[in-house]
Amino acid sequence: MAIEYLGLSEINGPLVALEGVRGASYDEIVELSVEGKKKLGRIVEIYDDKAVIQVFQGTEEMSLNNTHTKLTGHPMEISLSEDILGRVFNGIGQPIDNLGNIAAETKRDVNGLPLNPCSREYPRNYIKTGISTIDCLTTLIRGQKLPIFSGNGLPHDQLAAQIVKQASLGENSDEDFAIVFAAMGVKHDVADFFRRTFEDSGVINHVAMFLNLANDPVVERLITPKVALTAAEYLAFEKNMHILVILTDMTSFAEAMREVSSSKGEIPSRKGYPGYLYSELATLYERAGIVRDCKGSVTQIPILTMPNDDITHPIPDLTGYITEGQIVLDRSLHQKSVYPPISVLPSLSRLMKDGIGKGYTREDHQDLANQLFSSYARVGDARALASVIGEDELSAIDKKYLKFGVTMEQEFIAQGHQEDRSITETLDKGWELLTILPREELDRVDTKILDKYFKAPVEEDTASSEEDDM
């Protein structure tokens, strides 16, 4: 029989304390009734007969005397079925699209089950995003976790929406694919932008959305990514679907952790964040992957805004340790009106080498990517030299690299908000770009690949034919 407790011993921000508790357990969900209104909470600390409870819907209207508390005996759970696709939920998995409740097939603990490392399969096969810089240079692989490092004012929301609209398993795949999208601490206009974009583009039917708004309780923000990942694991490992999870913005999640940690009186670590920030982030990010004997997969794209564009800030710093690469957005490219403003050189995908090439994308993919990276690095040197001695004093080859850099930014990195490039278009565009440079500069490409895909520029052909006539 469930025991109901009357009254609280303490209220501190989103936390309440209850004394005289028996049989409570860590992470257990409790129901709090306040003047006929029900709220949910989670036990986050227990010592002796005292329990500290995080209240999801906030502690407004609660007092020490009028609150009834009932222990449920189970952790936070979410109702699941395939019907979650095409639906919109709040941060704790309750429908907010006025379409009624989900006809649940099952309920799952949002904390998930630990994956046996020995049962993991190595990620293979790429996921197409339709964005050239990602597909060619930082390819997303099924089962990978590849974060996007952004900054305040940069178009990461537009990029996230475009990835949701365009993502697929490739042109020839007939496997089931869906997206779980979770937004934490977003403003109403941003949430409306996502919903409207997905509905107008017709992709909403294979997207499950979880929205925690800026005016929603801070504590709910801590549950939102867990709820989204639980839904993704259900669709992937029980319904054999390939799931792409987009989590934005992980900085809001970390700041919610800092706020709640401060309310609990915990000793802060770097920049005021709790010492367990790393383990909390790892708990979320490691819920991506492929499990042996399961046909589905979970792939993650966490998006985070770097405070002051500082990549050494604890959130991007710790994220970089856990994940397999990063995509970095650049403010200087954004100021040049380049969209998406992806900075090529600090961006990488550590798993791309095993999911591209012959049998996956195209045989020339790896060599082409290597050459584009190498050539674009030379652009930086040429620009630095031009800033010192002037562009007119540069050598002929340095001037070609300057032209290569401008063309790459304007025609390869930059693309329209609605432009969905196939992997073939992207790779062909890369080879087109390399024709700006002399063949002897392309030292990162195998000779056989170069002979097959590199077409000498028209100017050189014309010049050589004029020499022959003379």
From TrEMBL:
Residues 130-349 form the ATPase F1/V1/A1 complex alpha/beta subunit nucleotide-binding domain. Coiled coil: none annotated. One of its GO terms (biological process) is proton motive force-driven plasma membrane ATP synthesis. Keywords: ATP synthesis, Hydrogen ion transport, Ion transport, Transport. SUPFAM superfamilies: P-loop containing nucleoside triphosphate hydrolases. Residues 354-453 form the ATP synthase A/B type C-terminal domain. It comes from the Bacteria. Pfam families: ATP-synt_ab (PF00006), ATP-synt_ab_N (PF02874), ATP-synt_VA_C (PF22919). One of its GO terms (molecular function) is ATP binding. Gene3D superfamilies: 3.40.50.12240. Residues 9-63 form the ATPase F1/V1/A1 complex alpha/beta subunit N-terminal domain. InterPro entries: ATP-synt_VA_C, ATPase_F1/V1/A1_a/bsu_N, ATPase_F1/V1/A1_a/bsu_nucl-bd, P-loop_NTPase, V-ATPase_su_B/beta. Belongs to the ATPase alpha/beta chains family. PANTHER family: V-TYPE PROTON ATPASE SUBUNIT B. Produces ATP from ADP in the presence of a proton gradient across the membrane. The V-type beta chain is a regulatory subunit. This is V-type ATP synthase beta chain.
